[in-house]
Amino acid sequence: MSTHDPHSDVVVHGEGELPDRFDDPGLHEHKPRQADVDPKVAKRVERQVLFLFTLSILGTIGVVWAYFALPPGETPDSMRTSNVVLGVCLALSLLGIGIGGNHYIKVLMSNREYVEERHEQRSSDETREIAVQMLKDGAQDSGLSRRGALVGAGLTALALFPLAIVVPLIGNVGEDWNVRKFKHTMWKKGTRLATDPQGRPIKASDVTIGDVWHVIPDGLNELEHGKLDEKAKAIVLLVRLDPRDLKSDQSPAGETWGYDGIVAYSKVCTHVGCPVALYEQQTHHLLCPCHQSTFDVADACKVVFGPAKRPLPQLPITVDDEGYLVAQSDFHEPVGPSFWERATK
């Protein structure tokens, strides 16, 4: 049952039911802010916004300077310094624009609510003139015409910010784009497997069932130039299983790539390149801590879970005359994240 008050626009259907129509409540009463009534407050906020825009400009300049003056280099310290300075400067560049613009809009620009009724799409000439005048009034109300320093600082910050992105891209022009070098590592026939990071060669007799060893090529620690790049490509995880648990230790061509239950796989995840090193002895599963890709060590490190799309590359190994574990060759496919083509030659 519904009731209708002829003196009201509200129709009520009954207790607990919602009305069909509501009276227009109108606009809320406008409450002026401190900056609206106190010129000193407005001037203080203007200085704050100017400082933030200037901070953004300095941050962008800092990104460009750090990119050229502080290259990553070859050592962890130089890489850390370069990344920290670039990151801090880029943060200042972004935060200065974002916080400064937001502060200006919330405190200095007009916060009055305006109502404009809808009309036909093509307004009359008189209405169009009124609209143009309203835009002019809005621009005047925003105070931009009276705050030239803010306009200049804001536009400069916005104009300079793209340099923080473009300069690193331009700086890479002419660099080494030969991706073929990522298809091969320093592993080769006869290279002994050594402990990481000590570099001590490993004998097969030292590895017992259930053991997990972090491995690098013997001689890696003697390298100087490019040492980090070579290690990043060549790191290996060595595991010994009961040979009866191995579903396969052979290559697709039928070659034996393990030795008496000992198998070796690249530690570089085939998803995005994180180090895969969490081994579950009972299930023989190898877990990547970044995105939980899981590989079955007992079955050629095939993917059993997660976003990785291909198995970890296996390093063919055997033993030499002294009983040390050695590589039969390099990996037979590129290590690391999958990319557009897989040919190794």
Name a few traits of the molecule.
7 helices; Rieske Iron-sulfur Protein; 2 domains; oxidoreductase; 33% helix; transmembrane; 345 residues; alpha+beta; iron-sulfur; membrane; transmembrane helix
Question: Could you walk me through the main structural features you see in this protein, from its secondary elements to its overall organization?
Answer:
- By secondary structure, this protein is an alpha+beta fold.
- The protein folds into 2 domains: 31-171, no CATH class; 181-327, Rieske [2Fe-2S] iron-sulphur domain (Rieske Iron-sulfur Protein, 3-layer Sandwich).
- The protein has 7 helices and 12 strands.
- It has helices at residues 34-37, 39-69, 76-107, 125-142, 148-160, 163-171, 227-234; strands at residues 3-4, 11-12, 193-195, 212-217, 236-240, 262-266, 278-280, 285-287, 294-296, 302-305, 317-319, 325-327.
- The strands form 4 sheets. A 4-stranded antiparallel β-sheet has the order 3-4-5-6. It has a 4-stranded antiparallel β-sheet with strand order 7-8-9-10, with no helix packed on it. It has a two-stranded antiparallel ribbon with strand order 1-2.
- A hairpin with a 6-residue loop joins β1 and β2.
- α2 (39-69) runs parallel beside α5 (148-160).
